[in-house]
Amino acid sequence: MTSDEPGLEPCNRPVDIGSEGSSPIADDHEAADPIDYRFTLANERTFLAWVRTALGLLAGAVAVHALIEPVGGAVALRAAVFVCVALAFILSIVSYRRWRAVERAMNAGTVLPGPGLAPILAGGMAVVSVLAAAAVLMT
Question: Which of 137, 128, 135, 55 is nearest to 91 (CA)?
Fold first, then answer.
């Protein structure tokens, strides 16, 4: 959809294209202009991607935990499992809070919050990588 299509301004917010005061937009909940639904769907897809990442971390933790038993329970591997589970927990909670904050900011027309999850995930994955490397070197 481009900005020259009827009903959209260049900022991608719907405009009233009705006549004689009739509006396709509900006026009873309208504090500001409603946002384009594509932005809310993109926000939801981002939230679901973070949830998939958390599930992947949990699956990785289960897989590494299954490998610990035959190896003899290396301390570094157990620590990596703990970090993966902790990251999955943090991502699942913080991703929901971020989704809500972005929704509120879009509805209010304010600046979107910064990327709070990416540094957490990057730091956690760096720790997991160091622990996995230590486990490999120790065996």
Answer: 55
The domain limits of the chain are: 1-34, 37-138
pLDDT digits (tens, 9 = 90+) for 94-104: 999 999 999 99
Q: What is the largest CA-CA distance in the chain?
A: 78
At residue 131's C-alpha, the angle toward residues 124 and 80, to 5°, is: 65
Q: Is 137 helix (H, G, I), strand (E, B) or coil?
A: helix
Q: Write out the two tokens for 29.
A: 């909940």
Number of CB atoms found within 10 A of residue 84's CB: 26
Phi, psi of 8 (to 5 degrees): -125, 135
* Model pTM score: 0.67
Task: For residue 6, give every residue at least 6 positions away whose Cβ sits within 8 Å of its Cβ, in sequence order, or none.
Answer: 17
8 has which bridge partners? Answer: 14
| pLDDT at site 55 | 95
